[in-house]
Amino acid sequence: xxxxxxxxxxxxxxNAKKIIEYFLGNDQIRVDLVISNKGTAPVLAIxxxxxxxxxxxxxxxxxxxxxxxxxxxxxxxxxxxxxGFLWLVxxxxxxxxxxxxxxxxxxxxxxFGGKGMYGMNVHKAVKESGETETGITIHYVNExxxxxxxxxxxxxxxxxxxxxxxxxxxxxxxxxxxxPKVIEKVLLEAGNN
Length: 193
Known about the structure:
By secondary structure, this protein is an alpha/beta fold. It has seven helices and seven strands. It has a seven-stranded mixed sheet, with helices on both faces. Helix 5 links the parallel strand 4 (about 75-80) and strand 5 (about 100-105). The longest helix is centred in the last third of the chain and has 28 residues, at about 165-190.
């Protein structure tokens, strides 16, 4: 039985694209739906170019109704993947998909996490802190920003001369390299339990 993923993204969709490409031709796992909170997000065009259904959600329906649960369950979605999705996932969605929502964070949690810690904000904070190492954390999602149980971490160096932009490039490389593989592992292990 094929396992289906829904990707939630707010922006350009480079991680979403890597995930979609990784599962192309896989007869066990596929990206079934891409959801964005921005109707103009480039990730929607990427999904459509691969023939994947898309959905745009607005803040009030996402936070004040659980209609999205019915839509996801109706599609037999087994894993929700946050790939640059900037809204806090509401409690009802976490309860409906326990240990079935994963997020990628561009730092080594628990450092540099929490509200407002995304994208370049994270890389600037890493640089300003004098850290010699950063990386990515892939974790389960709970009701708080960047607080769920860690699944996987990968590291890369931070050099004295690095700009936040250089750090961001190195971290993005780790994201693209590891996120699809970790998603696959999470789904296959879930199938064995």
